[in-house]
Amino acid sequence: xxxxxxxxxxxxxxxxxxxxxxxxxxxxxxxxxxxxxxxxxxxxxxxxxxxxxxxxxxxxxxxxxxxxxxxxxxxxxxxxxxxxxxxxxxxxxxxxxxxxxxxxxxxxxxxxxxxxxxxxxxxxxxxxxxxxxxxxxxxxxxxxxxxxxxxxxxxxxxxxxxxxxxxxxxxxxxxxxxxxxxxxxxxxxxxxxxxxxxxxxxxxxxxxxxxxxxxxxxxxxxxxxxxxxxxxxxxxxxxxxxxxxxxxxxxxxxxxxxxxxxxxxxxxxxxxxxxxxxxx
Length: 280
Fold this sequence. Notes:
There is one protein chain. The chain has ten helices and ten strands. It has helices at residues 18-31, 55-81, 100-108, 127-138, 167-175, 177-182, 205-212, 230-240, 255-261, 264-271, and strands spanning 6-11, 34-43, 88-96, 113-117, 143-146, 158-162, 185-191, 218-223, 245-249, 276-279. The protein has a ten-stranded mixed sheet, with helices on both faces. The longest helix is centred in the first third of the chain and has 27 residues, at 55-81.
């Protein structure tokens, strides 16, 4: 039985969203799922920054442009999806940036998986970061990040799990089970396991047992942190095993701390060249 029944993707720019849109279609087709495409036109002007005497005019022009953008993206999506073998819907909506969190949370919370573009990329604004975090935090849904300029594999045959015993990592693994069950190779990577943690005598043992009971045979790799950032070690290991996808927990620390000081989630989102399945 297919596990992903509803897949959602959010398009804000046809060019920036191209890789993610293609990935969403592949996941929907492979799972015989319904693909819900949210075509979002954004008014990126912040209230309070209009010049005196022109507030109403400028605001209306910005909203009108957002509506036009939404309709254009919806038209593109419908033309692309025409003739698809899976069920789909495309909805054009316009919104101001201040309303994005609530809108995305409402539209994604009943999805099994949300497929989105890489939020940190050259020339990309704050909107994709806000959309990604809204889906993860307010929508409470697993998010599959598809890197720009890369194709989603026809089958994710080799999957890497970044395991650190956290609640977020376990939720990510459970969310990724449909992919993990279909994979030929699953590798659990543990970077410098804690010497006094609950799994100190058998790092990854309980996770391996959990996966085995779901029919997933996994191998373990215990890695040393030979690079300054955990994300660098994980990404390098992903390259070494030629992983088709990386699964990991998201934001074990607060988003504010990661945005200021950096963290494994943000670093992976910045540098990944492989599909990244995240769950908070």
